[in-house]
Amino acid sequence: MAFHQQQEQSLTRSLDPTDWASFRADAHSMLDDILSYVQDLREHPVWQPMPAGLRAGFDRPLPKGATDLMEVHRRFMDEILPYGGGNAHPGFMGWVQGGGTPVGIVAEMLAAGLNGNLGGRDHAPIEVERQILRWLRDLVGFPKSAEGIFVTGTSMANFIGVLVARTKALGVKVRRNGVGSSRLTAYTSAASHGSIARAMEFAGLGSDALHVIRVNERDEMSLTELQAAIERDRASGFVPFLISGSAGTVDIGAIDDLNGLADIAAREHIWFHIDGAYGALGMLAPAIAPRLRGMERADSLAFDLHKWGQVPYDAGFVLVRDGELQRATFASQAPYLTHDRRGMAAGDWWPCDYGPDLSRSFKALKTWFTLMVFGTDALGASISRTCFLAAELGRIVEAASELELLAPVRLNIVCFRYRCNDPDAINTRIIADLQEGGLVAPSLTKIRGNVAIRAAIVNHRTDMRDVEALVSATLALGRMATQPVTQSAAR
Ligand SMILES: *Cc1c(COP(=O)(O)O)cnc(C)c1O
User: Fold this and answer.
1) Which of 157, 330, 411, 413 is the most exposed place for a label (fewest CB within 10 A)?
2) How far apart are CA 153 and CA 133, in angstroms?
C-alpha cells in the first residue's frame, strides 16, 4: 500500500507512519542516498545552473493532498540535490563556507528526532550547549564569567555583540527608552565584514555612526588612525563606545593587531568586539593560534562553527566576557518563561536570556558530535591544511608569469588574476567560466579596485588536485580569452 493511502487522515490518527517497517526501509534508503552523494562528491560538478523547467516546478500550489514519501525524495534527488550551492564540494573556493561532514549529517538526523527546543528549561540538550560554551570559552581564553550561545551565524553574533556594547554604554534602560538621539560612535576597519554596519543599523544607531578606519600596509586596522578618530570624535561631542576588530577578514584573511586594539579599547574605556567569523577557530591550529593573541582580551567575540569548524549549517556562536551584561541585555520577565527550582521549568541557564531567539534548534548536538568524533587535533589539522594549500597556490601564482598575486596570502585566501590588457573584464569572465565549468569555483572580489579571482580555501575536502585544477583552468581560460580568434582557430 502506498504511503499516501495509509496517510488518510482521521481525527484519531497522528502524522506518524502507520507502516513503520516500510517507512524504516524508505528512511534507510534516503540516508544511503545522501551518504553516497557525499562519498562521490568529486564525480559531481561543484555547481551547475538550475534548468528553467525545474525552477518552474517550484511554483506549484500548496499541496492539499498527500504525496508518497519516496516520490518527494525522488524530486529532492533529481531537482534539488544536483543544484545545490556547491560548498560541500572539494572544488568550492568561492566564499568562506564550510563543507560539512558525514558525522554532521547523522548528528542532524538525531537532533531532528529529538526535536529539542533549546530556548531553555531543564533537559540534557541544554547541558550539551553549556558544555560547548565552556569548551569554546576555554579555547579562546575567556574567563569563567563569560557567557555565550549558539546563533545562526556571525552576522547575528556581531549584532548581539553590538547590542551588549550598547547596554554597556547606555545602561539597561536603553531597552525601555530606546537610543533616542544617542551620539554613540563605533569603529571598524575598511576590511571588515558588512554585517558590522548592518548590526549598527539594526541596533538603531545607524551605519553612519560606524566610522571606518583605513588599513595599514599589513591590511590591519591602523591604530594611529583609530586613536586619532576617537580623539577627534570625542572633541566633537560624540561618545565612542565600540571598536570592532577582525580576526580573518573576508576578502584576504588579514588579522587585525588584536592586542593593539585591546590596548586602545582599555585606555579609552570602549567595548572591544572581534569578528572572528572563521578566523577565531584558528585557535585549533598550532601555527595560527599565536597570531590570534589579544583575542582573549575582547569583550565579545563572534564566530562560526559552520566555516572552518565544518559543522553543517547553521552554527554561529557569540561569547561575551561579561555574561551578566549579556543577560541584562536580553532576559525577559514574561510569566510563561518563569524559571522554577523544580520540574521542567528548572535550570538557571536559559539560552533565551542571552539573545533574541526563544525557540532554538539543537545546534549544539552536531557541534558536540563534530568535536567529539574528530577531536580538536584533526579539526586543527584540517584548518592548517587549508592554509598550506593557500600558501602553495600563492607560490604557484607567483611563479607563473601569466598570473599575478593581488594580495599577500595571509591565511587561507588567495586573491590573484590573469595578466592581460583588459584584466577586469577578462578575469570577470574567467571567474564565471570557472564556476560554470563545474570543476573548481572561486569567486570575484576587488582588491584596491581591481577585479580579483578569490580562492577561499575553507573546505576540509579540498586538496592539491583542486589547487592545480584552478591554476590550469585559469591559464587555459585566460589564454583562450586573450588570443586572437584567427590564431586559436588556426591551431
Ligand atoms: C562569513 C563571515 C561573516 C558572516 O557570517 P555568517 O555566518 O555568514 O552570518 C562575518 N564576518 C566574516 C569575516 C565572515 O567571513
Assistant:
1) 330
2) 15
Other Cβ atoms within 10 Å of 101 Cβ, number? 24
Q: For residue 195, how far is its CA from the centre of ligand 1 (angstroms)?
A: 7
Number of other residues whose CB lies within 10 A of the CB of residue 8: 9
Q: What is the residue whose three cell numbers read 514519501?
A: 69
Residue with the smallest CA separation from ligand 1 atom 15 is 250
What is the total residue count of the chain? 491
Q: Is 253 in the pocket of ligand 1 (CB under 6 A)?
A: no
pLDDT at 343: 87
386 lines ligand 1 (CB under 6 A): no
| Distance between Cα 253 and ligand 1 center (Å) | 12
Ligand 1 geometric centre to CA of 491 (Å): 46
**What is the reported pLDDT for 7?**
54
Least confident of 46-55, 179-188, 208-217, 326-335: 326-335
Q: How far apart are CA 94 and CA 92, in angstroms?
A: 6
Model confidence at 4, pLDDT cuts 50, 70, 90, reads: low
User: 0.85 cut: is pTM over it?
Assistant: yes
Q: Grid cell 569583550 — which residue?
A: 299
Q: What is the percent of the chain where pLDDT is above 90?
A: 92
Indicate if ligand 1 lies below 6 Å from the C-beta of 96. yes
Q: How far is CA 420 from the centre of its chain?
A: 34
CB atoms within 10 A of CB 61: 5
Residue 203 in this model has a pLDDT that exceeds 70: yes
Residues paired with 247 in a beta bridge: 255
Predicted confidence (pLDDT) per residue in 379-419, tens digit: 999 999 999 999 999 999 999 999 999 999 999 999 999 99
Answer whether 193 contacts ligand 1 (Cβ < 6 A).
yes
Q: Where are the alpha helices (DSSP H) in 237-315?
A: 258-268
Mutate which of 93, 95, 151, 155 for ligand 1 pocket (most atoms within 8 A of beta carbon): 155
Average pLDDT over residues 167-181: 96
Question: Is residue 321 in contact with ligand 1, taking CB distance under 6 Å?
Answer: no
Residues 6+ apart with CB under 8 A from 23: 3, 17, 69
Centre a 10 Å sphere on the Cβ of residue 397 and count the other Cβ atoms it contains: 23
**Residue 489, pLDDT score:** 47
Give the Cα separation of 480 and 460 in Å (integer). Answer: 32
Q: What pLDDT, in 10s, does the model give residues 264-317?
A: 999 999 999 999 999 999 999 999 999 999 999 999 999 999 999 999 999 999
Residue reference for cell 588570443:
483
Give 461-484 as a DSSP string.
T--HHHHHHHHHHHHHHHHHHHS-
Output the nine-digit C-alpha cell for 177.
Answer: 527608552
